[in-house]
# Entry
Amino acid sequence: MDESNTVAALSALAQVQRLRAFRALVVAGPDGLTPSVIAEKLGIAPNSLSFHLKELNHAGLVGVEQRGRNLIYRANFEAMNGLLGYLTEHCCEGAACAVDPGAACTTC
# Structure
């Protein structure tokens, strides 16, 4: 992940409803969630959620698939792990530290 992608991802996550929506999608795993389910879980209006999902999608943190009449949103675990990797790449000035690079989500 490069700087511009990192800034876009962090900017997308720097809003409470988008952060909550992204976390809900991470918890849902590869099956993803429909916007109506996310809105119900978060207690926000569907039209407001639509705006937030669009921002997360634009930042590359979520993907969307049309399944019949429903949209299924999924967290983009590759982008999430790339963001985490970028943020921790040079931690501890290159010395060994407590951050475990293998702790990234590999089961999704």
In short: The first helix runs from residue 3 to 13. The chain is about 55% helix and 10% strand.
